[in-house]
Amino acid sequence: MRCKSLDLSEATLENFVQQQLNEDSDSPEIFAALCAKERFLEKHTVLLFDGLDEIEHAETGNRIAAELEKLARKYPRAKIIAAARPIAVRQGDFAKFRRLDVLPLTPEMIQAYVEKWFAGEPEKIATLQQSLARRPRIRDLAANPFLFSMICFTFEQGGDAALLERRSDLYAKCTQYLLLRAYDPESSASAKSHYEQTIEILKDVSLRFFLWKEDDFPVDQVNVVCRRALSAETLGRPEDFLNRLEAETGLIQRAKEGFTFVHRSLWEYFTALALRDKTNDFVIRHAVNPDWEEVVRLYAGLLQNHDKVVELVNGLWNLNRPLALRVTTEVKTPAAELLKPLIAKEKGKQSKLLLIDNLEQSLRLIAVTDQQKLVEETLDILLLKCAERDCEVIYHAQELLEKVGMQPLQPGGLIYELFDLAHAAERQQKFLADPANHFEWIEVEGGEFWMGDDEHFDNEKPAHRVKVDSFRMAKHPVTNRLLSNFPFGEYPNYGGENHPAIGNTWWEAYYFALWIDSRLPTEAEWEYAARGGKKAKRTQYYFGDAEEELPNHAWFGEGGREHPHAVDEINPRTGKENLNPLGLANILGNVWEKCADWYDESYYKNSPESNPKGPAQGTRRVLRGGSWDDLPSNLRCAFRARNAPSTNHTRIGFRCAQDVR
Q1: Angle formed by the axes of helices 368-379 and 335-344, nearest 10°
Q2: CA nearest 640: which of 624, 657, 656?
Q3: What angle in degrees, to the nearest 10, is found between the helix axes of 391-403 and 506-515?
Q4: Which pLDDT score is estimated for 125?
Q5: 635 with 625: CB under 8 angstroms?
Q6: Which domain holds residue 151?
Q7: What is the mean predicted confidence (pLDDT) over 122-148?
Q8: Of 64-68, 199-203, 256-260, 427-431, which has the strongest mean pLDDT?
Q9: What is the pLDDT, as a whole number, of residue 276?
Q10: I need a surface site. Which of 153, 367, 487, 615 has the fewest CB within 10 A?
Q11: What backbone phi and psi angles, to 5 degrees, belong to 526?
């Protein structure tokens, strides 16, 4: 079903389907068989509504999703597919549809396509395959079926020299060969003139009708638009010229109301070609319209002047930042050269977070093969070349890198390089060697324990058996002295060097732990260690249930204090540090401690039995242990608290954990 001509103000979607079937049927008998009441849209029928982004009537575009849903409900046996470019579809409009993306061609598909196209010509097959292997950018373009057909065509016409590495160059070469079917500029001066005039006419028609949002151009309107160009007797009347162009080049085809380009991409290319005669300001003004996305990107690829490329990207940066990022994949100028000055001007966390969000938005509108490159190049500028130091910004960049299938924490990854993780273990040993840091590991042998509590809050239920592997946990929370070495962020010093580091966010704790070759403990590890590891008791506190004994083991209920106790402070009641059976100091009380897990109130109902790591996503992170300012009930081993990762409260600190290697 070709949606271009769909107008729901005049007909129902059901009538439109019947009309299309009637137009495509070879005989009245076939139409009757397809549209008989008892057979219409029954099983084994698939309807593909192609070109949602080409619908001419605005009221149809607004209603199409609802009407498709009605059609699906009325004919449940029929399968309905709606196709469009991603930029033309708002996912919220098609909430009841399942989104599918057209995948790139695999290397096996590309090879099969080449062998079929050049069947019987093994030398050409081998040469083209070598070109694809040698030039990654061409290989990336070949993953797109339409572009790959153009690659094969241009290669067939011009050999290896025809293989160009940008879409705009590929369109230029392909259209040149198609026009050579009708005109050979090398044969005579008149042929060259006709060739040049034809390109000017196509540019003029493309731009005018693109501005009018009409992809069919009636002959009489072409005559008005191109009166001067078509005045030459050699080109003839507009209709004769268009008929010849259709027959001899294949660039255009007959349409209901005149002529149209055989593929929207060719229309966009000639429109982009026309924009070279305009100013960048003209282009940028139209860039706010999603319909101009491809045109602007192709136009950028056609620009030969470096200064104009810089001017275009800078103008788009202030108007349509995601498009500015996508444009960098089309031009010869390296992305770092274009984007570094712009990113360096970004002030404050929010503008950088918005930049990362813009970058993510861009991904669905570019080829899958370009996505990793765009993400890596842009974030390399933000993180490394502009020396980003805000941990929240860095974490969101890490999430995006992982989303596109990269491994930013592995050697060579952007986060690995940013935090110099190659020397993380060396840093840890240095800090362990200095007693003033109060940093030492406690070995926690793995085992099973009862996690949670059936007698208190719902988020602690049900109590359930959990197994954790062996790990190490720091004896003390990270101190002010230790955190002061971390060059990412600025941290307050409450109480002194040997007091717990507080007033930091979850992201800062997460990256500090990585920076010293460790991590934050999982919620299960924290509770297992707090209860005493293999000696864990199924009681409220690691020493039992008697709340009156808690002052002998923890700092709590001190609302008048301004900051926590020193990590090694002696409890005057006992004359000793507050140590649990494993030797962990102040695991209950003094400061809340951050865990690695996202928080989910009902997580325990379906959590894994072995090494649970919390939900895959969330909005808040788990806190455990209570603080100097809390009630005894908040210090229970099973008590679960949470807050936003951005919280930097003065009652919250963290301690590190490490896998046993």
Answers
A1: 50
A2: 624
A3: 80
A4: 92
A5: yes
A6: 107-165
A7: 86
A8: 427-431
A9: 93
A10: 487
A11: -60, -50
276-288: burial string, b at 16+ Cβ within 10 Å, e else: eeeebeebbebbe
Listed residues 271, 289, 323: the one ending a domain: 271
Spatial separation of the C-alpha atoms in residues 614 and 602, rounded to whole Å: 11
Average pLDDT of the residues in 641-647: 96
Q: For the chain, how many structural domains are there in total?
A: 5
Question: Is residue 81 domain-shared with residue 198, that is, in the same domain?
Answer: no
Distance from CA of residue 506 to its chain's centroid?
23
Label residue 236 by pLDDT band (50, 70, 90): low
Helical axes 293-302 vs 264-275, angle rounded to 10° = 50
Q: What is the CATH number of the domain that holds 654?
A: 3.90.1580.10
Q: Please, what sign has the CA dihedral across residues 91, 97, 100, 101? A: negative
For the domain that residue 220 is a member of, what is the CATH number?
Answer: 1.10.10
Q: Which residue has the higher pLDDT, 65 or 523?
A: 523
Clarify whether residues 362 and 328 are in a common domain: yes
Q: Is residue 285 part of a domain?
A: no
DSSP 474: E
DSSP secondary structure, 406-462, as one string: --TTSTTSHHHHHTTGGGHHHHHHHHHT-GGG---EEEE--EEEEES-SSS-GGG-S
Q: What does the alpha-carbon distance between residue 582 and residue 181 come to, in Å, rounded to a whole number?
A: 84
Please report the pLDDT score of residue 232 as a whole number. 47
Q: What is the pLDDT of residues 9-66, one digit of tens each?
A: 888 898 898 888 888 877 888 888 888 877 788 777 889 998 887 777 777 777 888 8
Q: 């009652």: which residue's tokens?
A: 651
The CA distance from 383 to 418, in Å, is: 7
- Looking at the fold, whether 395 and 452 belong to one and the same domain comes out as no
The rounded Cα 581 to chain-centroid distance in angstroms is 46
552 with 623, same domain: the answer is: yes
Domain identity same for 72 and 113 = no
Residue-level pLDDT at 8:
86
- Specify if 47 maps to a domain: yes
Distance (Å, whole) CA 238 – CA 254: 14
Q: How far apart are CA 491 and CA 487, in angstroms?
A: 10
Residue 402 CB-density burial (10 A; 0-12 exposed, 13-18 middle, 19+ buried): middle
In a domain, 292, yes or no: no
Same-domain check for residues 141 and 220: no
Does 526 lie in the same domain as 408?
A: no
- The DSSP result for 26-64, as a single string, is SSHHHHHHHH-TTTTT-TT-EEEEE-GGG---HHHHHHH
120 and 247 in a single domain? The answer is: no
> Per the omega criterion (within 30 degrees of 0), is the bond before 145 cis?
no
- Would you place residue 258 in the very low, low, confident or very high pLDDT band (cuts 50, 70, 90)? confident
In a domain, 277, yes or no: no
Q: How far apart are CA 64 and CA 85, in angstroms?
A: 15
Going 279 to 282 to 288 to 291, the CA torsion angle's sign is negative
Structure tokens at 320: 């349509």
